[in-house]
Amino acid sequence: MLKDLFFGTIGGLGLFLFGMGLMSDGLKKVAGQKLKSLLESLTRHRLVAVTIGALVTCLIQSSSATTVMTVGFVNAGLMTLKQALSVILGANIGTTFTAWLVSYFALFKISSYAMPMIGFGFLLTIVCKSQKHKSVGETILGLGLLFIGIHFMKEAFAPMQESESVRSAMISLGSHPILAVLAGTVITMLLQSSSASIALVQMLAFQGAFGEDWSQVLSITIPYILGDNIGTTITAQLAAMRSSRNAKRVAMGHTLFNAFGVMYILPIVIPGWFGQAVEWVIPGELTQTNIMFHLAVAHSLFNVFNTLIFIPIIRLLEVAVTKLIPITEKERMARPIALESHLLETPVIALQQAKKEIVRMSQTAKQAVELSMRAIINNEAALFKTVEELEDTVDQQQLEITSYLTALSRKQLSDEVSVELPVLLHTVNDLERIGDHAQNIVDLARRKNELRMKFSEPARHEGNQIRTEILHMFDQVIASLKNNGVEGANAALDCEVRIDSMQIEFRRSHVDRMTNAVCTPEIGIIFIDMVDNIEKVGDHLTNIAQAIIGGLQWNGMEPEFMHHEGDEQER
């Protein structure tokens, strides 16, 4: 039994975490800005978000699944912390319907959906040609594996429900409310389902295991139900283990919400007042035939009341979890510093603030390119994740600046602001594409490491040459963005000429090295792809430099330098 318990738990947890990661990655690829906008619109109002959380949980009959999906949405950047916390409040209400629908002899098995989801999801990943459809399949496959993981963990501890010693311990603990809360917490953590643990309490109560003074039985069993509400939060904590910091905050918010609710309800439960309130809600005599119904009401009453308490102070809950899991340097970089919404009424000043934020974005893009080149030239695998995080920051900065400039475009603008604004939007897009090229270089570096290959000394020398040149070009462009200086922009164009020459020269010399067997074809392709990516970074910096030289104006025409053949295909 112990072996099955241990293996089932470890295997189930592994599948759970793997499924969570797969689902989150699939959401990132398939969702995009459209789903983010839909979720934002649906959950913008806290009451609507709570309702959505409750309805989804009612449909799938698992608050664990709802909280895990919510953590996945936050991890994929599709939902804000505040929106997610509101959905979690609703999930707590939704899960109470399980106690109404499930009797002591049958539990809803969410795992019954897992196998079709795994099969269908895997089929989409291998049959579909569209990357979007493949990503949908990856998301469904991850969700199915996640459910299977929960199922295995539940099955590993299933013998506990039949154990006489476990039942005796629960009856003994029932006379001590605080210990009963702790017991309910632990059992739900082990079973990975508050529905299962509440059904176990319902079954024991119905069978008379807590005695036949039914009012006393109600008072004894309610603390177990309170503990179940704390224990169920472990699922979100597990889901957030490999997720972003904001996802961890959602999980922490879920725990705080339920734990604080139990803390202020327990003083009402111990004297029996909460049990009396339940009996008042359900008129008539409390008997063996309706004791489970009373426990279902107690579960619902607690969660509805707790949600009503927290909805008005959801902002305080958000602040609390942010304090407990503080903002990192990466998050601080991604957050806009200069973009103030109240300045939108003064478009000239708002535009200047947007330019300041674009300078920050260009500095982040430069750092991403610099570290990606270090990673590939020197085989510094430790930098891979840092570059990926910087690329995510660039994407977030693009979203923030674009949203700000879009909001500005709706205001009454002067001619000067009107002509500068679209050029700045293109500048932001160029910087975001630079971040993509930094990610491309890291992908090349990762492949190089997997092949256990190194650049030859001549290749390393050439790589450092083009790296120095592109960073110098970055410095000139950033300086020009800061002071609107044409001199730095012209110097950047000179850098672009040298980079183009390097690309041609380095391609030729590397082909010679491959011909002379100094380098293998595999490492040669990686080197040439690296040089090509840097040349494209130079193209995007050239776009920005020429825009600065033109005074951030197109004079009614979009210039030819905004387009580069083959660049779109690469995306």
Give an overview in words.
It is elongated, with a radius of gyration of 29 Å. It is mostly helical. The C terminus is likely disordered. The protein starts with a helix and ends with a helix.
In brief:
This protein has helices at residues 2-42, 46-60, 63-75, 81-94, 96-101, 114-127, 131-156, 164-173, 177-191, 194-206, 214-231, 234-239, 245-269, 273-281, 291-310, 314-324, 329-334, 347-378, 384-409, 415-450, 457-483, 486-515, 521-549, 567-570. With 571 residues, it is mostly helical. Mean pLDDT is 78; it is low at 101-108 and 554-571.
Question: Which SSEs are present, and which pair or pack?
Answer:
Layout: H1 2-42, H2 46-60, H3 63-75, H4 81-94, H5 96-101, H6 114-127, H7 131-156, H8 164-173, H9 177-191, H10 194-206, H11 214-231, H12 234-239, H13 245-269, H14 273-281, H15 291-310, H16 314-324, H17 329-334, H18 347-378, H19 384-409, H20 415-450, H21 457-483, H22 486-515, H23 521-549, H24 567-570
Helix pairs in contact: 1-3, 1-7, 2-4, 3-4, 3-13, 4-13, 4-15, 4-16, 6-7, 9-10, 9-11, 10-11, 11-13, 11-15, 13-15, 13-16, 14-15, 18-19, 18-20, 18-21, 19-20, 20-23, 21-22, 21-23, 22-23
